[in-house]
Design brief:
Chain lengths: 267, 291
Amino acid sequence: MDKFMFGRYIPGDSWVHRLDPRAKLILTFIYIGVVFFANSVWTYAVLVVLLLASIFATGISLRVFLRGLRPLLWLLMFTVVIQIFFGAGGHVYWQWGWLSVTHDGLINALLILMRFVLIIMVSTLLTFSTQPLAIADGIESLLSPLRKVHFPVATLALMLSLALRFVPTLMDEAEKIMNAQRARGVDFGTGGLKQQVKTIVPILIPLFVNAFNRAVDISTAMEARGYRDGENRTKFRELKWHRQDTLSLIIYVVFSVVVIGLRALQL
Amino acid sequence: MDIAFEKVNYWYQAGTPFAVQALYDINLNIPAGAFTAVIGQTGSGKSTLIQHLNALLKPTEGQVIIGDRTITPETKNKHLKPLRKKVGLVFQFPENQLFEETVLKDIAFGPQNFGISEEEADKLARQTAKMVGLDESLLERSPFDLSGGQMRRAAIAGVLALEPDVLVLDEPTAGLDPRGRNDIMGLVRHLQAEKQLTIVLITHQMDDVANYADHVIVMAHGHMVRQGTPREVFSDVAWLNENQLELPTATAYANQLIQKGFTFDPLPLTADELADQLVPQLAKQGVADHG
Ligand SMILES: Nc1ncnc2c1ncn2[C@@H]1O[C@H](COP(=O)(O)OP(=O)(O)OP(=O)(O)O)[C@@H](O)[C@H]1O
Ligand SMILES: [Mg+2]
C-alpha cells in the first residue's frame, strides 16, 4: 500500500487542521451539494477557486492532493470514455455503429469529470486535515439530535471510530500477509482472472481470522474495563466551536450563493 | 549463495509525505553456509533488512547481490520467483499466514506455487512436517485448531517445503515456551549442519547468538553499527550497554564474577566456556581456603 494516499490523515497545524471537525464535515457537505448545481464554466471556476483556496489553507502541497487522485484514475477514465461514446445530442463529430462522439457527449463527459475530481478532492481535503477519530466525533455530534427518536448514535459512533481506528492496522496487516504469501511463491497481479481470484484467498482468510480474534480481544478488554452499551457517557475529547469555524462557514455559504446565483442567471 | 548489500538505503513509502527512512547506507556480506544472526533493538530495521534478501523489498538506493542476481531500485517484479524459492523467508509471527483447510495442504501450498505436482508437494509436506516435529495425526486438522507452538511449526514447515538454499527467520522463537524455543533452535542448527543451508536469524536471544552464530550483524536506528564474530561483538561490554544490547547469560555472569576478582580470557560466551575457565579458578580458591 506504499502509494495509497486516499483517505489518510496528514498531521499539521494549519487553519484547516484546527477547524472543528463538525465545521469541516458541514463545509464538505455544502461543497458537494453545490457541485451538483454547477453547470457552466463560470460556476465551475468559482468552485475551483474555493477548492484551491481551501487546499492552500491546509498547508499541504497540491501535488499531494493530485497524487491522491491517482488510484482513482482508471475509474475516472472509464466514466469519461463511457460518457464520450454513449452520450448523444448536438453536433456529431464521429460515428461507428452505435458508438458516436457528439458535442453534448463531450460536454457531459467534461462536466462529470469535473464533478468527480472536485468531490474527490474536497473529501480528500477533509481526511487529509482531520484525524479519523475527530471525524467520528464530529459525526456523532452532528447526529446527536437523532437521539430523541432513539437512534443509537453513541453505538454508531463507537463502531465508526473503531472501524476508522483499525483501517490502517488492517492495511498494514494485509501488506504483511501479502508479503508472507509472496515469499511462498504467490504472484499477485499476474496471470488470468481465475489465477488472480485464487490469490485473494490466501490473503483474505488470514486477514479475517486475525480481525475476528482481535475483535474478540477488544470487546473482552472493553467489558473488563466496564463498558456498557447505550449508557450516557462523557467525552474525553470535547469539541469546541470557534470563530474561525463560523467564518469558514460564512465563506462557503457566500460561494454557494454565488454558484447558485450564476446558475439562476444562466451564466 | 553469497549475499551482499552495497550502499543500500531504504525508505518506506518513498516519494510520499509519509516517507520514512528505515535503512541507511548498509554495506554487508552474508557468507554462504554460515549462520548469521541479526540483532538490534526493536524498530532498528532488522525486518526491513531481511526482506531485501528475497527482494520482497527493493532498495530505494544501492543494490543487493543475491547469488547471481543483482537487485537494484529498477528491478522489475517479474522473474523474481526463482529467487523466492532459493531464499526462504519465515516472517515474524508466521502463524498469521496460515489459511488452508488442513495443515498438510498449507505446507504444500508453497511448493505447488513453484510448479511442483500435487503428489510431490504432498510428499514434501509430510517430510517437512516430520522435520519440524509436527505429529502425523495433526496433518489433516485445520491449522486454526493447532496450539500456538504447533501453528508456528506448521508455518515454518510451509517455507522449508520450498527447499531453499538460504533460510531467513524473523524471530522464530518469539512468544514460545523454552521447550518450543529449544526445538526450533535445534531444527535451525540441524538444517545448517546437515543440509548445508545458509541461515539468517533475527533474534533477541543473545544466548542463541552465542551458541549458534558464526557471524553477527548489529543494527541500530537503521544503521549497521557492527558486524563480526559473536566473540568480537560481545567483547565490548561497555559499548553493548550503551546500545542497550544484552549480553549472553554466561558472559553477563562472568562479568559479575570479574567484579569479585575472577579473571577470564577470553570472555566466555557459553555456559561450557564459562565452566571451563571457572573450575580451575574455583579449585585454586578451594585449595587456598583450606590452605
Ligand atoms: N510498512 C511500514 N511503513 C512505514 N514504516 C515502517 C513500515 N514497517 C516498518 N516501518 C518503520 O521502519 C523502522 C524499522 O522497522 P523494522 O520492522 O525493520 O524494525 P525491527 O528491527 O524489525 O523491529 P522489531 O524488533 O520490533 O521487529 C521502524 O521505525 C518502523 O516504524
Ligand atoms: Mg521486526
